[in-house]
Description:
By secondary structure, the chain is an all-alpha fold. It has one domain. Helix content is about 65%, strand content about 0%. The protein is built from two helices and no strands. Helix 1 runs antiparallel to helix 2. The two termini are about 45 Å apart. Keywords: Membrane, Transmembrane, Transmembrane helix.
Amino acid sequence: xxxxxxxxxxxxxxxxxxxxxxxxxxxxxxxxxxxxxxxxxxxxxxxxxxxxxxxxxxxxxxxxxxxxxxxxxxxxxxxxxxxxxxxxxxxxxxxxxxxxxx
Length: 102
């Protein structure tokens, strides 16, 4: 099974975002003069925000991977149980099966 390219791109976006948030937090927390101390609140805000949003990207990437695997194995199961490879034209709307029988 080939891997999903979109999931890989989103995974790397999440990793880069977490890494850049750490760097930006350090740079933003630097004192403006030599008499000031490191601004932990500013740095911590960047770190938490970058970590949370990066983890959301990682989670979304994992969801795409799971859906891709499910689709692949469902199709393989369909083929192994006598399903045909060719896709027939749909004669009815795909929502016909969801119509209530009143």
